[in-house]
Design a protein that fits this description.
The chain is an alpha/beta fold. The protein has seven helices and six strands, in the order αβαββαβαβααβα. Helix 4 links the parallel strand 4 (117-123) and strand 5. 27% of the residues are buried.
């Protein structure tokens, strides 16, 4: 073969390789640009309206304050109601916390409307008298027409205290299994020194709320 012809063919081959490499680079750059700059916004997280109830001293305010990463200084019992938007990775819970004093509990039902889920916080280390009161309030809430079909999260709080009752003791004393038969409910142990357990408990509630959203609508 003529050396000049061979040289020309080699030059053509190199040129073709460079063109192919350049095309591949352009495709790669375009793909990266689309991925980084043209990606649409993530879908919005669903929001659920939750009512949070329980006696004074059960720890409702402290748990919600920690979930919102707010300061724990100067926490005072809720005297009326407060609303906190509690963000989670999969949803945002708009939690309406109702005060737990005796003169406020009789008005709880006025704030139930529009709720999609319920959180009931009880002091698992409380006196027998307070535990009986909490039992009666929980039974009343579970049977209320505006709440009876909603998912329930029951937090047995203050598990870090020596007098704390076990979940089995609470389940038996509150007669949860016969009372909540046919309902979607969760009983979880919590304490203010284990916020990760509290987050996990709320995540379980979100799963129940998501399942409710997926239920077929009957017409």
């Amino acid at each position: 073969m003529d050396p000049e012809i061979g040289s020309m063919k080699r030059a053509e081959t190199v040129s073709e390789c460079l063109q192919i490499s350049y095309a591949i680079c352009r495709i790669a750059i375009y793909t990266c640009f689309r991925a980084l700059c043209c990606k649409g916004p993530p879908p919005p997280r669903p929001e659920y309206d939750i009512v949070c109830i329980g006696l004074s001293g059960s720890g409702k305010t402290s748990l919600l304050t920690q979930l919102c990463c707010e300061s724990q200084d100067n926490i005072v019992p809720t005297t009326g109601f407060s609303i906190k938007a509690v963000p989670f990775q999969s949803a945002i819970l708009n939690v309406k916390e109702l005060g737990g004093a005796a003169n406020i509990r009789k008005y709880w039902s006025r704030y139930y409307q529009g709720s999609q889920g319920v959180v009931f916080v009880l002091d698992s280390a409380s006196s027998e008298e307070d535990l009986e009161t909490a039992r009666n309030e929980l039974h009343s809430a579970l049977q209320h027409p505006q709440l009876c079909t909603l998912p329930f999260l029951i937090l047995a709080n203050h598990q870090d205290k020596p007098a704390a009752r076990s979940l089995q003791e609470i389940k038996k004393y509150f007669e949860l299994e016969p009372l909540a038969r046919g309902k979607r409910w969760i009983l979880q142990p919590t304490s203010s020194d284990n916020i990760e357990a509290v987050k996990d408990s709320f995540s379980m509630l979100i799963n129940l709320l998501d399942e409710r959203e997926l239920e077929p609508v009957q017409i």
